[in-house]
Amino acid sequence: MHKKNMLFITMLLSAVTQGADAIVLQTSVLKLLDGVWPAFDGDTLYKMSWLMVRYDVMLNGKIVNKETKERQGLYKFNGNYYGIKDLAAIEQNNKDNAKVQKDFQEILKSAKREFLDLNRVFIKQIQSQKQFVVKIMQESCDRRNIPNSYMLKWAETPFGAEEESFDQNMTSFTELNKFMFELRNFLGDLFESCPKGYAQYLEIIKKQRANRAGA
């Protein structure tokens, strides 16, 4: 358990630092929310880093060989396991294959259910800050030149209707891959833009490492 816990902490830090193209957002409201619960304090950023790890696994698969970085997807199709990113590519290459499209719908249901289960608590926590989060998302999308991001539409969905909206709009792996990639980038932008929250986050990681080392 000790090694697994240390590995998980390393994965959290890696998920945060992987976003080399992260953007420092300038939205003024960020200064008010940076380091403040339930918006972007260290504990919230910790939860965000955990989500980023899970998004990466869902999109690209889990690492099964630490030396080669070989990954195995979570979703089984035709006897093999794929990540959402690869399934989106297969989907695009089989647009006219009715059987593939039908098989994909069942796999898609499973992936969508997993996504909603992962995000339910986090969405509930930041609900009171939703109007501010939408503004921050808007800047991220504008600066990344994503004018029609579903991420924005989803964030603006009335409270309690997020899951229904997601289920209705995520009708393909192509859409799900795009949405999760954009959301992953947005979380990376938040880390880059919240120095107070990030400092608190690093303190949490530091304490966890100390606790693991002393266990």
Question: What would you say this structure looks like, in words?
Answer:
There is one protein chain. By secondary structure, this protein is mostly helical. It has one domain. It is built from 10 helices and 4 strands, in the order H-H-H-E-E-E-E-H-H-H-H-H-H-H. Strands 1-2 form a two-stranded antiparallel ribbon. Strand 1 and strand 2 form a beta hairpin. Helix 3 crosses helix 10. The protein is globular, with a radius of gyration of 18 Å.
Attribute tags:
single chain, 215 residues, mainly alpha, two-stranded antiparallel ribbon, two-stranded antiparallel sheet, 68% helix, globular, disordered N terminus
User: Please, how many domains?
Assistant: 1
Instruction: Report the uncertain regions.
Output: 1-9
Shape: globular
Based on DSSP secondary structure assignment, what is the total number of beta strands? Answer: 4
Based on secondary structure, the structural category is: mainly alpha
- Report, as a whole number of angstroms, the end-to-end distance: 10 Å
| Mean pLDDT level | 87
Spatial strand order of the main sheet:
1-2
Major sheet: 2 strands, antiparallel
Helical run tally: 10
Question: What order do the SSEs take from the amino end to the carboxyl end, as H and E?
Answer: HHHEEEEHHHHHHH
Binned strand content: 5-15%
Proportion in helices: 55-70%
User: How large is the radius of gyration?
Assistant: 18 Å
Summarize, please.
The chain has 215 residues and is mainly alpha-helical. The protein is built from ten helices and four strands. Strands 1-2 form a two-stranded antiparallel sheet. The protein has a two-stranded antiparallel sheet with strand order 3-4.
